Amino acid sequence: MHLCLCASTTASLCCSVLPTVVQRLQAVQNAATGLVSGTRRSEHITPVLRQLHWLLVWQRTEFQMAVLVYKALNGLSPQYLADDCQLITTTARRRLRSSNVATCDVPRTRTTLGDRSFTAAGPHLWNNLPLHLRDFKLSLSEFRRLLKTYLFG
To answer: How far apart are CA 90 and CA 92, in angstroms?
Structure first.
């Protein structure tokens, strides 16, 4: 059972949502967890979430956004998403020492709303992932598995 909407909708919605709305969504997820597991309201819900292998709302958002960036960089997404996620090696005018690392070009924005757009938030999130996750040799299923393990940790 998945509580979130489809991947592209979830990532684009949640990266531009205020923290208070994320808290409300987390409360809904907590209630759904209690309903699914039969947990009483007085019990802590975090161990139950971990037992069900459910990510928290903000972790799920980061998971979905990172998967979208992975797909964009590997040619598995629509062109409009691939245009938003460019590697520094393809946009740089000269060769950099960091060009052997899969680092995205993060566009500059002038507003916090611009910072929360997929164009800026997606590449920024990708650049903050550990190097072993930014390996293009990983298949999509391996990337998803390793990313979920990383976010659980």
So the answer is: 6
